[in-house]
Amino acid sequence: MPGQAITAQRSRPAYALAVTLVIGIGLLWRSKLLPLPQFVAKYGGDSLWALVVFLCFGFAFPRGSTIRLALVAVGFSWSVEFLQLYHAPWIDGIRSTRLGHLVLGNVFNLPDLLAYVVGVAVGVWAEQAFLKDGQMA
What is the pLDDT of residue 137? Predict the structure, then answer.
């Protein structure tokens, strides 16, 4: 029901599969193999990153409320974005690796904050669509 907080019993195998699929889509999204406009490639990729964060929290806390997980996922995503304002040799060294760049990014970009909200909102929508009576459908 819209507006009602969902307390779910998530299936960890289903969430692990979803994380794997979204990561694959995100890597393809950013690979330049898809002829996406720059805006869609950039912010769609950021939204997918935040969706993975939401799914990871869903995996880690299978009985948590959807709203609480969404707030934690947005808070985590925004924290990583704001962390990009901090530059020290040790963290810039991590960011210089491919994995470090994909996970931490390196340049603060205010519109990314909205892209993260969109990605988490997609996760919330998916839970409302696929969780029936608190169980994975």
Answer: 43
Query: What is the tens place of the pLDDT at every residue in 63-92?
Result: 999 999 999 999 999 999 999 999 999 999
Numbers of helices and strands, H then E, in the chain: 6, 2
What is the rounded (10 degree) CA torsion for 61, 7, 70, 102? Answer: 40
C-alpha span between 49 and 61 (Å, rounded) = 18
Whether the CB-CB separation of 104 and 87 falls below 8 Å is answered with no
* Domain assignment present for 105: yes
Does some domain include residue 95? yes
> 24 φ, ψ to 5°?
-60, -45
pTM of the model: 0.86
Number of separate domains in the chain? 1
54: Cα separation from own chain's centroid: 5
Burial (0-12, 13-18, 19+ Cβ within 10 Å), 38: exposed
